[in-house]
Amino acid sequence: MEIDFLEYKVRHGDTLNSIASRLGITGEELKMFHNSHCQKMGKVWFENLNEVKSILVPLQVQTEKQKDQEKKNTLPSSQLSHSFFAKTYTISETFESAFEPSLTIDYTVDIDIRKDKSTNHHILSYSQGNFKTHGETPEDKMSGLSIACMKSIMPIDFKLGDSGKIMGFTDHRKITQTFAEQRKNLDFFAGEISERYMDKFEKNISDEDFFLRQLQSTLLFQVLFPKLEWFHKKTEWVESFYFLQNSFSVSCNMEIEQENEDQDHITTTLTGNSTASYSVQELRTGTKYNEPVEDPVSGSIAIEYITHKQNKNLVQASVILGLWREEESIQQHTITITQG
Predict the structure, then answer these.
(1) Collapsed DSSP state (helix, strand, coil) of residue 28
(2) Which residue ranges of the chain lie beneath pLDDT 70?
(3) For the chain, which domains are there?
(4) pLDDT tens across 134-158, in order?
(5) Where are the beta strands (DSSP E) in 69-117?
């Protein structure tokens, strides 16, 4: 069995802190190390080492700075790199509500990132497809039309900032022109209702700010394209999330935990609770009433990222987004994003 400690003979005047300081660690860290390696009767509990004959000290000591650096080396960079995203992710998305039947949607997302040499920006090409509803290909006309309209303008190109944040479209005009050209290929969706839907779709994508916000406010985009600084947080902070698409963002108090026990992967878990309460009507309409509400709801979010230690690749992400009235669940939205 490999021995990673030695026995130090305590001398007159020695304390936990004095011995620990020579090792570059704290007295509390030395006490924990000794107690985890010694016999039950040999444990120490006090700074003063009177009547303690020996202390077990580690042979190899990492300072807090070294530990932080080692941990940092296993995490994705705070600056965007091409290696963070895989080429393809499989998405499973479930909507549960107290007011409507639950809905599960499965689909795939394809991602390609390149550097624009003229602007030095990262360009993200994004496509999605292979939609299933409750495991089956949607057969109703409106679902098919909705999917066909989105498919007709993909891939969509975005500008990404160095922090990983989506900055905007690279060429919004190209999106609207592409749909105008492709619309004639959707003529098999005949009828007045289909025409009205396509008119509305064309109007929505023509409003650049609205269309960008429509995409950014989806839970998928908020989780799949995180701010990379999240992985390096050490203290609590405030972050804003959209609890409903096309609504307003809600500030949340966030905390972080990281597990580094897996040989190949590190797990980063972010949890947060909304800092203010709103009514369901406010969130659904996207309008803050700026007055006390009689039946407020609060929000909670939990995101788990699994990243690869070597290539810093996003392997999997999962999220639970919930709205609560006191302890009663009003709505829950979950997504699992899996590489490949």
Answers:
(1) helix
(2) 1-3, 61-68
(3) 5-61 (3.10.350), 65-101+220-340 (no CATH), 107-216 (no CATH)
(4) 888 887 888 889 999 999 999 999 9
(5) 88-97, 103-115
Q: Are 136 and 128 in contact (CB under 8 A)?
A: no
The answer to whether the beta carbons of residues 299 and 323 sit under 8 Å apart is yes
Distance CA 153, CA 175 (A): 6
Q: Which two tokens stand for residue 49?
A: 């080492």
For residue range 109-133, list pLDDT tens digits in order: 999 999 887 777 899 999 999 999 9
CA distance 291 to 288: 8
What 8-state DSSP symbol labels residue 184?
G
Q: Are 63 and 23 in contact (CB under 8 A)?
A: no
Please choose, from the candidates 159, 160, 161, 162, the residue with its C-alpha nearest in 3D space to the C-alpha of residue 170. Answer: 159
User: What's the burial of 252, exposed, middle or buried (CB within 10 Å: 0-12/13-18/19+)?
Assistant: buried
- Copy the structure tokens of residue 197: 């839907």
Helix (H, G, I), strand (E, B) or coil at 65: helix
